[in-house]
Amino acid sequence: MGVIVTNEFRNGSRLELDNEPYIIVEFQHVKPGKGGSFVRTKLKSLKSGAVIERTFRTGEKFDEPDIEEKNMQFLYAQDNDYIFMDTENYEQISLSKAELGDRILFLKEQMIATILFYRGKAITVDLPLFVELTIAETDPGRKGDTASGGSKPAKLESGAVVKVPFHLQEGDVVKVDTRTGDYIERVKTAS
C-alpha cells in the first residue's frame, strides 16, 4: 500500500478515509488570498457508492486502499445474490444487491466485469464504461416520428430503462453509458 498526497490527486485516484476506500470523482486546488491553500474534493465510496464532499489541507497524506481487481464473468442472479466466476480458476463469489447498487441495471449474463476486492473481500463491481444491451420492451415508433426528434423509454434485457430515439424498436441492440445510464447509439438493428 502506498501513500497519496493532495498534490497527487487526480480524478480516479483512490484513497483510504475513515477506514473505507474512496475514489476521487472531482477535486479543485484552492489558494485563498489569506490562509493556507486547500483541496476541495468529491469522493465516491467504493463500498456503498455514496458521494461525499471533503476539504483537505494541501500536503495532507492518505493511504492508498488495499484494492485488488479481478476480471470475472457474471453468471446469474439468485434472489438478492449476484454470482461471478473467476475465468482463470473457476472460483465463484457472490455480491449482494446492496453491494452492487445501480450497477445491476447494466449486468448481463456472461458479461466480463472487474470485481474490486478490498482487504481480500469482494466489495463491488466496476463495469465497462459502455455496454451493449438488447431492447426488450418499448412502444412501437409512430408514423412521422423522426430519428432526430424526441425519445421514448425502452426497457433493456438487463432491466434498465433508458430513453432512446422514437425509431428504435424491440430487438435492437444499443450502446449505453454505464456511468450515466444514457443511450449512446444503436449498434445492431433487430433482425
Automatic annotation (TrEMBL):
Pfam families per record: EFP, EFP_N, Elong-fact-P_C
Pathway(s) where this gene product acts: Protein biosynthesis; polypeptide chain elongation
Gene name as annotated: efp
Keyword annotations from UniProtKB, A to Z: Cytoplasm, Elongation factor, Protein biosynthesis
Organism: Leptospirillum ferrooxidans (strain C2-3)
Primary role: Involved in peptide bond synthesis. Stimulates efficient translation and peptide-bond synthesis on native or reconstituted 70S ribosomes in vitro. Probably functions indirectly by altering the affinity of the ribosome for aminoacyl-tRNA, thus increasing their reactivity as acceptors for peptidyl transferase.
UniProt KW Iron keyword: no
GO biological process: peptide biosynthetic process
Keyword Cytoplasm in annotation: yes
Identification of the protein by name: Elongation factor P
Predominant place of localization: cytoplasm
